[in-house]
Every structure is written in C-alpha cells, then in structure tokens.
Amino acid sequence: MNYFGLFIQFVFITIFLLLLCFHALMAFSAKRAQNQTEIPIPQFIKWVMLINFVLILGSIIYIIIVRP
Amino acid sequence: MKLNSATTRAILKEGIPSALFALKQTDNKKKRLEEYEIIKCAPGEKILNVQRQHIVSFIIPLISQIFITILILFLVYFFYLYAKNINLNFSNTIVTSYIVLTVICSFSLLMTFTFLSWFFRFYIITNKVIIHRYCFRIGGEFSETVYGEKMHVQDIDRVAKNLFYDLLKIQDVYVYFHKLERENPFIFSAPANAQQIDDVIQRLIIESKSGQR
C-alpha cells in the first residue's frame, strides 16, 4: 500500500474541497448582491461559474480514481 | 425586431448598414445603472449618478493573474522534467496533473471573484449623500457614506494614479471636506467617468449654496 500516494491524494482532495467551499460562498455572495441591487449577473459569468463547479468536481473524482 | 421610424429614416438616408445598426440598438436597449434600485432612496432623495470603476481596474488584475498562472504552469512543467530522472515513491506524472488542475481551478475561481468584485462595486451620488458601496463581499456588504447635509465640500481634485492611467485619462476623484468634519478625503478610485462625477458634485455645491437642495 502506497501510503505516501494516499497522503498526496488526501492533501489534494482537501485543497479541492476548500476550493469548492470558496466557490459556493462566491455563488451565494453573487446571488445576494444581485438580490440587493436588482442588477442581474451576466449570463457568461453564470456559465463560467458552472464550468468552475464541474471542473472542481471532476478534479475531485479524478484524484480519487487516479492514484499516484 | 421592430421596424420603427428611426430605422426607416436610416434606410432612406444612409442605406442598409445604418438601418442594421439602428435595429441592433433597439434590440439591445439596456437599463442605465441609475435606473436600478441599488440603494433605497429617502423621501426627496434622487440618484444623480452611479458608476462602477473603470474596466481597466478589472483588466489589469486579470492580465497579471494570467501571467502568474502561466509562470506557475511553466515552473510545474520544469519540475516535471527534472523529476523524471529521479526515482520517486509516486508517479510524478499524476502528481503533476494534480498540481496543474489545482492551478487552473484556482485561477478560474480567482478570475470570477475579480470580475464579480468589480461588477458589484459602485460609486453612487444622490442629492443628499455620496456612497461607495461594495455589494459583492464574502464577509458582508461594505458601504462608505458621506451625508451632504452634515459635510461641506471644500475642494475637488482629480489625479491619475500613475502614468498608464494618465495616458488612458483614468483619474481618481478626491473630495475634500472641512478638516473638522472629515479629515480624510472621500476618494472615488478610478471611476468610469471622473469628469462626470466632478460635474455632478460641483452642481450639487452650487445648488446647495443657492439654497435649492
């Protein structure tokens, strides 16, 4: 059992989970700002945020499946 | 798409390209920033001017983030080439792919954060107050407000931050008040149109002196 590889996986999964939390906070803050100002968030940014979410989630799955 | 009198006149006078331009303008009619209810106005208060920071305030950090990301990716690549010849306890190709994914995701998040910070940051001038409102904040809303009835403007100054901003005619607007009322000036940092802000505040000062506010 490659414990060092497991440790690396654990570190990177933690980093990506933190990025996911930051992304969620950012989406929540953007929604709150939109509600307060009634200015809609541009459509392309919504797409970018969706791509970010898919990228982070996909990276987590990739790190879990592909072991160093 | 509606064919209105402006479009018909454009076709008759200047041909199809102008008509297409007129049609495009009708379709893409966006609300001005002043028309959104960014702040709740008190009775008798009306919004005179709302501006964001100049788009360059977003573009320069974005470009620097892109350069830093490219630099980090190069460093990771050189590390990968160097580590190829060393016998490690793990696959350095896979770890390199982890690092590259981390850098790309971080850059993407940072870029989105930078854009939203710029997009939801406003300078608002009403006939009663001057507000700097920063609506997109992870930690809650930030607002700096100066009430015109309590403060008296002593001087307005426009200064470019650096030579590059000076070339692009992007200026900060410093609004100085009486020292006893407010020691530090209220600063409009790189607004979209510094001249417009200057004009609006000058007009407010003139109106208040003539007792019309």
Summarize this, please?
The complex is a heterodimer of chains A (68) and B (213). Chain A has 68 residues and is mostly helical.
Count of helical stretches of chain B: 6
What is the CA–CA distance across the termini of chain B? Answer: 43 Å
- Poorly predicted runs of chain A are none
Shape descriptor of chain B reads: elongated
User: Averaged pLDDT of chain A, please?
Assistant: 91
> How many strands, which pairing sense, and closed or not: the largest β-sheet of chain A?
none
Q: Got a strand count of chain B?
A: 7
**Approximate helicity band of chain A:** over 70%
Can you describe what's shown?
The complex is a heterodimer of chains A (68) and B (213). By secondary structure, chain A is an all-alpha fold. Chain A is 85% helix and 0% strand. In chain A, helix 1 (3-37) packs antiparallel against helix 2. The radius of gyration of chain A is 16 Å and the shape is elongated. In chain B, helix 1 runs antiparallel to helix 2 and helix 3 runs antiparallel to helix 4. Chain B has helices spanning 5-14, 16-27, 56-83, 92-119, 163-167, 194-209, and strands spanning 47-51, 121-126, 129-134, 142-147, 153-159, 172-177, 186-188. The longest helix of chain B has 28 residues, at 56-83. The radius of gyration of chain B is 25 Å and the shape is elongated. By secondary structure, chain B is α+β, with helices and mostly antiparallel strands. In chain B, strand 3 and strand 4 form a beta hairpin. A 4-stranded antiparallel β-sheet of chain B has the order 1-2-3-4. In chain B, strands 5-6-7 form a 3-stranded antiparallel β-sheet, covered by helices on one side. Classes of the chains: A mainly alpha (68), B alpha+beta (213). Chain A binds chain B through residues 2, 4-5, 8, 12, 15-16, 19, 22-23, 25-26, 29-30, 32-33, 36-39, 41-42, 45, 48-49, 51-52, 55-56, 59, 62-63, 66-68, and chain B through 33, 36-38, 89-92, 94-95, 97-98, 101-102, 104-106, 108-109, 111-113, 115-116, 119-120, 122, 135-138, 141.
